[in-house]
Amino acid sequence: MAIADRIPTLDDAALANLHDNAVRLGASGAGQQQKQAAILLPLIEAELASRKAAKPKPTRNAKKKAPVQKDEDENEAEDEASELSGDLA
Asked: What sign results for the dihedral spanned by CA atoms 40, 45, 46, 50?
């Protein structure tokens, strides 16, 4: 089976690796490697674009955390600390 036929069956990591290798070989490979890279790059990039389009868009409606309510002991400790700091001034 030719590598071009296998592109749709590759997982995302393998496809990204193949893309990186094709770019590298297209730039600095031997003559035949550059020709193969030139053939494969458009196919790889089309598959990458197709997968990106098929992924759901992230939502911006992230749940906000509810504010943490302080218990009475914490409120009393803060009141005492502010009173003490006022006495020092």
From this structure: positive
